Structure formats: structure tokens, C-alpha cells
Amino acid sequence: MKVGLLVFTANEHRTNTPRRYEAIRATARQAEADGFDSIWLADHLLYRDPGEPTHGIWECWTMLSALAEATHRVEIGTLVLCNAFRHPAILAKMAATADEVSQGRLILGIGAGWNEPEYQAFGLPFDHRVDRLDEALRILVPLLRDGHADFTGRYYQVRDCDIEPRGPRPAGPPLLVGGEGPRLHELAARYADLWNTGWIGQPESLTEPISKIEAACNAVGRDPATLGFTAFVGLWFPEFRPEKPASLDQPLTGTAQEIAAALHGYAERGVQHAMFQCIPYTEQTVRRLTEAVQLYHEGAG
Fold it and tell me: What is the C-alpha to C-alpha distance for residues 41 and 22, in angstroms, rounded to an integer?
């Protein structure tokens, strides 16, 4: 099982000060040196809660392209792109280019999106998000795999569209679809190479989401073994941030040995790639996760 780190590009949690590229780059390069298999970036334009100041974040794809050049071994992925931010044909072109820059290390993760304030702020449509993703995948998949697409839908159209030149992999980068719910499960089963379930904690929390995606595969006539299962883990360190994150029902916590044991549990349940978000995101918490990953690779835990 591969293990990845979500590299933060958002402003500092408490002070809302920007994370500078030099620091982001250093974190990515250190993760590569420490043995992580991948680094991942979130895709948002801003965070805004009622009564709170806007919380900033750098644009995902620009930062991803820079880190593709700054690293050499780790896979680079998006966890996950918001479909509404980029036309799918343009995204396919961007993906082929980033795969070339990274020499075949890109994993293209995409989802329907959820954060309404950023849609409003940037003038993007918030309606029918899953329908839009459905049409986008009907364009993305043939462009990534074959380099050509023709499609006329309600939300997107492409006419005799070609991706040229092609990236280093004949079938393009692997496509990951993230999200929960029957329709997103169906789209992942129909179109994706990888499916991501989010915010898991202990390995036992995987039982229900895996059973649902397997059922979705069976419903569309796909062998579930042909769809890679990936898991986005919320890793909470209460000694550094006592308040439990509101978005996490059952976060993973523990010592490096306990985290390593959880990694073994994920692998035993068929997870191909586990990606971690450290909460809070500090040098100390990333260092503990690094220790756990090294224990996992050594077979301990």
C-alpha cells in the first residue's frame, strides 16, 4: 500500500498568514526524502464561514505544476479537483502537460465540489454539480485515454477535440474520483481507475464505504478488483489542537506505533493508497506521521 501526505497550501490555521512557496516546496521535498509515496494538494479558491474573515489558499494547479518540477520520485495528486473550476477539455490538456513535467507521476483526482461560498465569490454555477461531473467525465476519459473526444451535453460540449502532444503514458494519468453517495459511487465505478473515500479513522470505518463501492461496481457490470480503493485519513493530534475538528466524526489518533498499526489495517482491507491530513498541520505532527510511515515500511506497528 502506498502512503501519501496532503501538503497544505492554505493560510496558517490560526493567524491566516500565507504559506510561502519556499516552505511548501521544502515540505514536499522532505516528504519525498522521508519515504512518502505521494504528495497531494487540495483544490479550493477560498474558505469563508459566516461572520469570519476569508481564509486564503493558493491555486491548486499552479502549485502542483511547480511541485512536479521540484520533486523527482513521489507521485503528485489532487485530492480532489473541483470539477466546476475548469472546463474538462482544458483540464485534460493541463493533465497531459503536468504528466509530462512530472515524467509520469500525476494522479488526476476530481470530484463534484461542495464549498458554496467559493462558487459564489468566483461566479461559478453551484447547481447540478453531480450532473456536471457526469458530463465532464464523458469528456475527460476519452481525452485522457485516447486523446480525442466529441461530446454534446447540457453543460459541456467539445467538437473534434484532440490532446496533442500526449504525455509520457499512452493511456494518460490515472483518474481518481472522490466522493460519497450513490451517484458518485456509480460515476467512479463507470469511469475511474481509483476511487477515494474521505475522512476515515480506524480501519474498521472502511467496511461500509468499501461495501458500497463494490455494490456500485457490480451494478454497472464491473469487477470491483479492477477499481483501486484509496482512503483519505483525517489524523488528529489532540495534544497539539485540543478542539476536535468539526468535519471529523471519528478521526485517527495515536502514537507513531498506533498509526503504523492502522496503516497495516488499511492494507489488509484492500486499500491501495492512503493519504493523510495532519490536524493541526505542524512540523511536529508531520514528523510523527513520518515516523509511523517508516515503521509501516519496516513492518513494525
Answer: 16
